[in-house]
Amino acid sequence: MNAPRNPYQQLVAEAEGRPFAAIVGWPVEHSRSPALHGYWLKQHHIDGHYGRLPVEPKRAALEELVAFLKRTPNARGCNLTLPHKIEIMPLLDRIDPGAQRIGAVNTVVKQADGALEGRNTDGFGFLEALRYNAPHWRAEAGPVVVLGAGGAARAVVASLVDAGVPELRLVNRTRETAVDLGVALAPRDGRRIVIGSWDERAGLLDGATLLVNATSLGMKGQPPLDIDLAGLPRSAIVYDIVYVPLETALLAEARGRGNRCVDGLGMLLHQGRPGFEAWFGVKVEVSAEQRHVAAADLGA
């Protein structure tokens, strides 16, 4: 009886010599990135592969990932999800300036010289999905509340600051992490990043035009997000970057009180575009059909 392949052997076998990329995380089984990129590969008749690669949250495991990408000729790079977006950075050859500013990487692209470059497309995906699903929203209209200060939250905050939000209220369960993020990304033109404590999160919703859950709370297998929406204007948009489940308890409550809602699937779809284009050399767009396919893959 043959011994089971390790995840790297499995991925190479699935690729069958074709150019490939993969989603890397721990755990990674929940990711729908393979369905997303598989759709584009099929749509554009590209002979390539996109798979899953579970990698433990240990430096030695990340070093093994980097070595694998470098030594495997048909490896084009990878996406990174929890918990690797920050820890991978010191191991890469180059970091794109945008990702350096955010302090997190979600996309690794193997260059022609074999070097690995870290990029961040989460902010791009976040704003593209927001503009698509809530085209009336204007950054300058008023305060925005962001829950979370991890890798994805860093990209969200950077994109909102760059979009021109006049006041960003940042709340995290660990206040010190939020303070560090606020200092790192604070605008230099008089606009503010206000750091709130987790206990006062509901009070910070007053007057907000947008509430973003950029934590893992509410995700399948994680604790629920507990927040009282009573103080949130009904005109505000509620955006949950969680996409498993697609309709989180936060979105269900917000929708029930009349708020416009944006789920995490749109961000997932749009953030995938720049990486796919870098790996496989074809420009792609997000379509309603693709969203339908991805939602069906989620069982939604």
How would you describe the overall organization of this protein?
The chain is of the alpha/beta class. The chain has 2 domains: 141 residues, Rossmann fold (3-Layer(aba) Sandwich); 140 residues, 3-Layer(aba) Sandwich (Rossmann fold), CATH 3.40.50. 37% of the residues lie in helices and 18% in strands. It is built from 10 helices and 12 strands. The strands form 2 sheets. A 6-stranded mixed β-sheet has the order 2-1-3-5-6-4, with helices on both faces. It has a 6-stranded parallel β-sheet with strand order 9-8-7-10-11-12, sandwiched between helices. Helix 2 links the parallel strand 1 and strand 2. Helix 5 packs across helix 6 and helix 5 packs across helix 9. The longest helix has 17 residues. The mean pLDDT is 94.
Summary tags:
6-stranded mixed beta sheet; Rossmann fold; 300 residues
Secondary-structure blueprint of this entry?
Elements: H1 7-15, E1 20-25, H2 33-43, E2 49-54, H3 59-71, E3 75-80, E4 94-95, H4 97-102, E5 107-110, E6 116-119, H5 122-133, E7 144-147, H6 151-163, E8 167-171, H7 175-185, E9 192-196, E10 210-213, E11 237-240, H8 249-256, E12 260-262, H9 264-280, H10 288-297
Parallel strand pairs: 1-2, 1-3, 4-6, 7-8, 7-10, 8-9, 10-11, 11-12
Antiparallel strand pairs: 3-5, 5-6
